[in-house]
Specification:
Helix content: 25-40%
CATH class of the largest domain: Alpha Beta
Distance between the termini: 52 Å
Number of strands: 21
Structural class: alpha+beta
Oligomer: single chain
Strand order of the largest sheet: 2-1-5-3-4
Strand content: 15-25%
CATH architecture of the largest domain: 2-Layer Sandwich
Number of domains: 3
Radius of gyration: 23 Å
Largest sheet: 5 strands, mixed
CATH topology of the largest domain: Uridine Diphospho-n-acetylenolpyruvylglucosamine Reductase, domain 3
């Protein structure tokens, strides 16, 4: 039976949440129920960072601190967590070192975005990273400031000293069972069997992984659901295994957990994931969710297709394996059956003679929706391309392979002439659309130009780093 309360630590003190509809965002609950109004609503879609709070997640006897966007989190996702807001930083009437550093560096003007920035920096310091420019900028990439300018904020990050927030000695309560408020239920199964049973029983209930997409229905559209099924605590979906031949990433593994492995294995993919979203987004969002969302501009999807990844789907009749490229049937329509879930994705590891690169083109460098994503895996030996897999996002109703370009390159000498022929083939592979992100002609030109980029990078002809480019 579902429980009627959620137990958490809120700014170091035990807190029991009752009678709050499951689709209520943490941001709304903090501001309206708890009157903790330091946490601000800016965009309500996870872009601006004004609503940043920090979760303390039990990990090896201690707490792992992660910044998240409270505007995208449903309240039941807090179960079994410690939650710190800006009001919880100061202790005994004294500012936290992060707050003091921001004052001393003149890192605030209007103050609206300042609480979220302070919380992002608090999580950064608690993570124990060195305050170097690259890591500071990454930690702050999810926080927009409209008036201060970022230099004094970065200065504050350099001078702040690590110190715990105000806290009590109370332990973090264990996550309870499913949560119920009124006629609405938030299901949080712990096993794959229990999850599949829920899928059979409630095939129309939305599946919640991190909520970085589904959360928009809570924050923007104010949608309520009779049932929400969370997969975040399903043990089998949280596996991350690196084998001799492949990497298996469970559908509930967050981008943050997967990032070090992808960074090490697939050049360009780690940088792509850093630009998918800020740390606040990566700490909640999952690759499984990106696959299930099935957007034609889902950033990881062309990568998985180019890498010949395999999906493991599971339902009451057992497991079903299929290539990722076969999963997408039409615009946001997939081959997932109503009683199935995505269990994991398996990605082959690269062989010594294989080359992989991925590039994203967007209007803004950080945390922007893609215009075009290109992903390329080539097998090159003695200057010859023996195999080519090329996939694009943003070029069709689904992420899709450039099969004509692949055929042109396969068996050819890896050369400017072969790339020029593959560029021409791209025009036959796709008929891109016009929309507010980019025009069809632009997309076609970019897709072809990225082949040039691939050639220059893999032959030592380009000095620019791999990764993501602005329009």
């Amino acid at each position: 039976m579902a429980g009627r309360s959620i137990r958490i630590l809120l700014n170091g003190e035990p807190c029991e949440i009752r009678d709050v509809p499951p689709a209520t965002t943490v941001l709304d609950w903090l501001r309206t129920e708890k009157r903790l109004t330091g946490t601000k609503e800016g965009c309500a879609e996870g872009d601006c960072g004004a609503c940043t709070v920090v979760l303390g997640i039990p990990d090896g006897g201690g707490l792992r601190h992660e910044a998240v966007n409270s505007c995208l989190m449903a309240v039941p996702q807090l179960a079994g967590r410690a939650l710190v807001t800006v009001e919880g930083l100061a202790a005994n009437g004294r500012l936290h070192p992060v707050q003091r550093a921001m004052v001393e560096a003149d890192a605030s003007q209007c103050g609206f975005c300042t609480p979220g920035i302070a919380m992002a920096l608090y999580a950064f310091l608690e993570g124990g990273e060195e305050p170097e420019d690259e890591t500071i900028h990454d930690a702050l990439a999810g926080n927009l400031c409209r008036c201060t300018g970022y230099r004094p904020i970065v200065d504050a990050a350099r001078r702040a000293e690590r110190a715990p927030a105000a806290a009590s000695a109370a332990p973090v309560p264990e996550a309870g069972p499913d949560y119920e408020a009124g006629a609405q239920t938030f299901f949080a199964p712990r096993t794959l069997d229990a999850l599949i049973a829920l899928r059979v029983e409630r095939p129309d209930a939305p599946i919640l992984a991190g909520g970085t997409d589904l959360g928009l229905l809570f924050s923007k559209e104010r949608r309520a659901f009779d049932a929400i099924v969370s997969v975040a605590r399903v043990e089998e979906l949280c596996r991350l295994e690196v084998g001799d031949d492949e990497i298996e990433i469970g559908a509930a593994v967050t981008y943050t957990r997967a990032l070090p492995v992808l960074d090490a294995e697939y050049p360009g993919m780690g940088e792509l994931i850093r630009r998918i979203g800020s740390r606040q987004i990566r700490n909640l969002g999952t690759i499984g969710g990106n696959i299930g969302n099935a957007s034609p501009i889902g950033d990881t999807l062309p990568c998985l297709i180019a890498l010949d990844a395999t999906l493991m789907l599971r339902g009451p009749d057992g497991a079903r394996l299929m290539p990722v490229e076969d999963f997408f049937l039409d615009y946001r329509r997939t081959d997932l059956h109503p009683d199935e879930v995505i269990e994991a994705v398996r990605i082959p590891r690269l062989a010594p003679d294989e080359v992989f690169r991925t590039y994203k083109v967007s209007k803004r460098y950080d945390q922007d929706i893609s215009a075009v994503i290109g992903a390329y895996r080539l097998t090159v030996a003695d200057g010859l391309v023996s195999d080519a897999r090329i996939a694009y996002g943003g070029m069709a109703a689904t992420p899709k392979r450039a099969r004509r370009a692949e055929r042109v390159l396969t068996g050819a000498v890896w050369s400017e002439a072969a790339v020029a022929a593959a560029r021409r083939a791209i025009a036959d592979d796709f008929e891109p659309i016009d929309d507010f992100r980019a025009g069809a002609r632009y997309r076609a030109a970019v897709a072809a130009n990225l082949l040039d980029r691939l050639y220059l990078e893999t032959t030592g002809g380009a000095d620019a780093p791999t990764g993501v480019f602005a329009l």
